Amino acid sequence: MTKLTNRNEPLVTHIYTADPSAHVFEGKLYIYPSHDLDHVKESNDNGDQYDMEDYHVLSMDGPDSACVDHGQALHVKDVPWASKQMWAPDAAFKNDTYYLFFPARDHDDIFRIGVATSPSPAGPFEPQPEYIPGSFSIDPAVFVDEDDRAYMYFGGLWGGQLEKWQTDAYVAEPAEIEPDQPALGPRVAELSEDMLTFRERPVEIAIVDEQGNALLAGDEERRYFEGPWMHKYKGKYYLSYSTGTTHKIVYAIGDNPQGPFVFQGTILTPVLGWTTHHSIVQFGDKWYLFYHDSSLSGGADNKRSVKFTELEYNEDGTIRTIEPYEG
Ligand code: FUB
After folding, report:
1. From ligand 1's centre to the CA of 33, what distance in Å?
2. CA of 245 to the centre of ligand 1 (A)
3. Dmax of the chain from CA atoms?
4. How far is ligand 1, taken at its centre, from the CA of residue 15, in Å?
5. Catalytic amino acids?
6. d(CA 280, CA 309)
7. Which whole-number Å values give the CA distances from 235 to 33, 113, 150, 255, in the listed order?
8. Ligand 1 pocket by Cβ (under 6 Å)
9. PANTHER family attached here (predicted)?
10. Coil/strand/helix, residue 143
C-alpha cells in the first residue's frame, strides 16, 4: 500500500531533500527541492558540505496524498556552464513551459543562476547553455504575479557570496559589513517574457522596520540571510526568508513586488540542523509551509529532509508562528 504523507514528517525517506519550492501545477502539489547526498564533506562557513549534483522533482496529488519521486530531473554534468553545488532551486510555469531555476558554481567558482525548461512539471529539464546574464549568488525564487509579470528574488550571504556583489562587479575579498551598517538585502529582477533573461539589472530590496528604518547588519534576529520566497495574500506581497545565523524563517509585507517590505515577525522557529529554508503555497482554501530539517539523519547539517505543515493567518493578515516540534 502507498504510504500517505504525514504533516511534519519527511515527504520521502529514500533520499535526503532540502530547500523545498512548492507550487500547484496541473492541480497537484509539485515540490522542487535540493537533493542532499549521503556523503561526508568538510563542513565550513563557505558551505562546502552542501555538495549536491542533481535535482529530483517530487509531487503529491494533494496534502493528504502519497509523495512521488519523479527521479532525476537535471544533473550538473549536463549543464555546460556549471561545475558543482546545485543548491536551492525553484520552478515556474509560463508560455506553456515549465522553467527550473537553479544556482550552481560556474567554472570560476562563482555562483550563478541558470534556467532549464520542460513541457512537464516533473521534468526532465533541458538546461540553457549559459547562465542567466547578470545573475549571481544563490536561492532563486520566481514569482509570477496576477498580471503575468515574473520576478526573480535571490541572494545568500557567506557561501552564497552575496557580500561579494555589493557593487555590480564581483569582489573576491570585500570589506567587512559593520553591525551598525544597513544589512544587505536580497535582489530582485523582473524576468523577460521568455523567462530566460533578466529584463533589467537586479536591484537590492529594502527591508525596513515599522519606523521605515533599514534593518541593520547586526540585527541577526531580523535581517536577511538567504532563501527568499514571495507570495501574495489578500493583495499584499509577503517576502519571507531565512535569518541564517539565528535560524528562523521570518517575513515582511509590502504593497509592491519589488518592495519596500516592512518586517513583521517569525513564521518558523529554528529546526534541527544549521540551515532553514521554506516555501509557502495555497492548495484549495488552505495554505501550507514547506520546510526542511535534519531529523532523518540525526542532525547532519547537509543531510536534510523536506516536510510540510499548515500555515494560518490572523484576521489582520499576519502569519501565526509555527513551532515545528510542538503538537
Ligand atoms: O542547500 C544549500 C543551501 O543551504 C541553500 O541554497 C540555502 O538556502 C541553505 O538551505
Report:
1. 10
2. 13
3. 57
4. 17
5. 38, 204
6. 10
7. 28, 29, 16, 8
8. 18-19, 34, 50, 87-88, 138-139, 156, 226-227, 275, 277
9. ENDO-1,4-BETA-XYLANASE, PUTATIVE (AFU_ORTHOLOGUE AFUA_2G04480)-RELATED
10. strand
- Digit-by-digit pLDDT tens for the chain (327 residues) are 456 778 899 999 999 999 999 999 999 999 999 999 998 888 899 999 999 999 999 999 999 999 999 999 999 999 999 999 999 999 999 999 999 999 999 999 999 999 999 999 999 999 999 999 999 999 999 999 999 999 999 999 999 999 999 988 999 999 999 999 999 999 999 999 999 999 999 999 999 999 999 999 999 999 999 999 999 999 999 999 999 999 999 999 999 999 999 999 999 999 999 999 999 999 999 999 999 999 999 999 999 999 999 999 999 999 999 999 986
Question: What is the residue with the minimal CA distance to atom 1 of ligand 1?
Answer: 87
Concatenated DSSP letters of 159-175: GG-GGGGSSSS--SSPP
> Which residue, among 203, 189, 190, 318, has the nearest Cα to 253 in the 3D structure?
318
Q: pTM for the whole thing?
A: 0.98
Question: Under a CB-based contact definition with an 8 Å cutoff, are residues 59 and 40 in contact?
Answer: no
CATH of 9-311, one of 2.115.10.20, 2.40.128.50, 2.40.50.100, 3.30.870.10: 2.115.10.20
Contact call for residues 160 and 140 (beta carbons, < 8 A): no
Give, using CA atoms, the residue closest to atom 8 of ligand 1.
Answer: 227
